[in-house]
Amino acid sequence: METQQSSAQPRPNFSGAGYVALGSSYAAGPGLGIPVPRSAPGARRTDANYPHRLASALDLMLTDVTSSGAVTADILYRRQYGQPPQADALTPDTDLVTITVGGNDIGYVMGLVAAGLPPGPARLAGLAGGLQRLGTGGLDRQLVLLEASLTMVGELVRRRAPRARVLFVQYLPVLPPDPVVRVPRMSTRQAASGRRFFTHLAGATARAAAATGATLVPVAAAGADHHAWSDDPWTTAGIRPRPGGPLPFHPNTEGMAAVAAMIGAELTGSGAAP
């Protein structure tokens, strides 16, 4: 009897591949693990973030330059916390790049925090009315600029690391996608504006990926049932950070693990993402 050979293709082997992680706190994972490296405390990146989890799972050689508070300019040309621009970590030998950035360009998390604060503290912090401004022409212009800035990031990565596999990784959602679900400490108008805000952020990331020939990791859709008030949250709901815990409205440990699994599934073709 003739032996039939399997038509299944072997999974890609990434062992030893050079991996550079770029992005903001949604990639850095502040408060989730041990800070790394200790020489850059302001960045607040930890060993429990998705870049470290992905590198461990696929045996990658990780250079993690993600940084809390980073905007696209901090990847492109600007120093942050005394560190060089994140793109300086890229080389022609880089094999893999992940990018999660853009929320700070338009004040995404700050807007959510402001919406949950009482009027007095919000005003004192200079955040009053954060989400109410979402419908203004000024913010609409910011959103247009965000897409252009993300595209510039993708183009620079292509130039600096021409052989690399490049992945734009969206932000995990915080708010419930269903407008009927009540969001504590937010008015209906604020929550609706926050959803619009997040939709624009996710869309700008997707369009920048398409414009630069990068792969999109659709974290925004995958996390819809895991919002901060769900039974299985991937993001935090608290306004005030817990000592040693994640920041408000940021990925938690489960969220970082889920994102790493989604990226791993995309790279290996395993389809084994959450």
Number of strands: 5
**Estimated helix fraction:** 25-40%
The spatial strand order of the largest sheet comes to 2-1-3-4-5
CATH architectural label: 3-Layer(aba) Sandwich
Which secondary-structure class do the elements indicate? alpha/beta
**Overall outline:** globular
Rg, rounded, reads 19 Å
Q: Secondary-structure element sequence?
A: EHHEHEHHHEHEHH
Instruction: Give the amount of beta strand, in percent.
Output: 5-15%
Number of helices in the DSSP assignment? 9
Mean pLDDT reading: 85
Question: What features would you describe in this structure?
Answer:
The structure is a single chain. This protein has 274 residues and is of the alpha/beta class. It has a single domain (18-268), classed as Rossmann fold (3-Layer(aba) Sandwich). The protein has 9 helices and 5 strands. Helix 2 (50-58) packs across helix 9 and helix 6 (137-160) packs parallel to helix 7. The termini are far apart. Residues 1-7 and 122-136 have low confidence and may be disordered.
Task: Summarize the SSE layout with pairings.
Elements: E1 18-23, H1 25-28, H2 50-58, E2 61-64, H3 72-76, E3 96-100, H4 108-116, H5 119-124, H6 137-160, E4 165-169, H7 188-211, E5 215-217, H8 219-222, H9 253-268
Parallel strand pairs: 1-2, 1-3, 3-4, 4-5
Helix pairs in contact: 2-9, 4-7, 6-7
Which features does this protein show?
disordered N terminus, five-stranded parallel beta sheet, triacylglycerol lipase activity, 5 strands, 274 residues, alpha/beta, Rossmann fold, SGNH_hydro_sf
